[in-house]
């Protein structure tokens, strides 16, 4: 496997990313301690910042894997600095995913690091580059759900618990959506190197519309129901109740209230 030499500045962690991490840490502490006068606002900032951190690491995983697979250009493009403004499409990678969290409580697959695939040899390497991003979401989901499946919630404040449950929901939905074998998503990128040239050529025009197709399908009530039933089943298996994720979403949207969640223990 080829490694590349890069300037130190190409790999130096961006102050922008460190600032986002700091927001997540401070608001997470405020949510845990109840320090904030408006707990909903603290939860909103904590979940949003943590979600953006996961998006940055998702893209970093793609870039870092590409670097060690032969694409030495990713450093000069700023992809190794974890700076979200360096992405090819910051709108797709950061802004839209955050808007979808606010509007619908769903982890939209972001993604816009340009990998020079011509520099990379071997189908397994191409597949691994595509898989690296959503595998980061899987890792985040494991971390977020660990207190639940380890039965380590004693002493964890309610607001922090349901915020963590909602964050876990976002990571699980992002991982599943990313792994769908739909052109334009990482799941298709995993299998694409193994497809014939003719199949790839026929599918290629659909890539810019893959995400739109997925969300159009999710607007269909029957498909939406099956999708979220599967998400709920995964989370229940990890010890997170539907009430936890529901109330986490309601508290995240602090500008509205729900009596059910306000009285839930």
From TrEMBL:
Which residue ranges traverse the bilayer? 16-35, 42-61, 90-115, 127-150, 162-185, 206-228
* UniProt-recorded Gene Ontology molecular function terms: peptidase activity
What subcellular compartments does it reside in? Cell membrane
- List this protein's GO terms for biological process: proteolysis
The cofactors named for this UniProt entry are: Zn(2+)
Provide the topology term for how it sits in the membrane.
Multi-pass membrane protein
Which UniProt key words apply to this protein? Cell membrane, Hydrolase, Membrane, Metal-binding, Metalloprotease, Protease, Transmembrane, Transmembrane helix, Zinc
Main site of residence?
Answer: membrane
Record-stated family: Belongs to the peptidase M50B family.
Q: PANTHER family in the record, alphabetically?
A: ZINC METALLOPROTEASE MJ0611-RELATED, ZINC METALLOPROTEASE YWHC-RELATED
Q: What is this protein called?
A: Site-2 protease family protein
Question: What organism, scientifically named, is this protein from?
Answer: Streptomyces thinghirensis
